[in-house]
Amino acid sequence: MRPTPMGWELAAIEPAGNQQAEVTDKKRPKTVLALPKGLVDPGEKAEETAVREVREETGITGAILTKLLDIKYVYVRTWGDKQRVFKIVSFYLLRYESGEIDDVTPEMRVEVKRAIWIPLEGAEHKLTYRGERDAIRQAQEYLRAHPEEAR
Q1: Nearest to 13 by CA among 30, 29, 37
Q2: What is the model's pTM?
């Protein structure tokens, strides 16, 4: 997140590969917008993963303000062994410190088509995944309760 004269903005990504979600009307597919996230590396703490993944997927560096929430879900792998996978994704609110949005390595373009700033206001209607929309609502509540963070 970063404060601007027009309000808060958040860094979102458009994943590479699967660039369209389900068709929302019969004529126009919806672009997938998501929050940066990824796997915890061995020996890494969840907070460190959040900072690293934001840097790798967006090109920006941020400092953690607070943990927002954990999302838990199960999915079945569509490749390999077709096993059920239980996943926990932890979301943190980071405040922008430095870097240029979408300044990512060529290797990261396999995962990220582009990274963009979008207004926090209304972001819960632009993100594709429900759990991430819940994280945005939590971020909005946190920032309303902590107006000093805008300085």
Answers
A1: 37
A2: 0.85
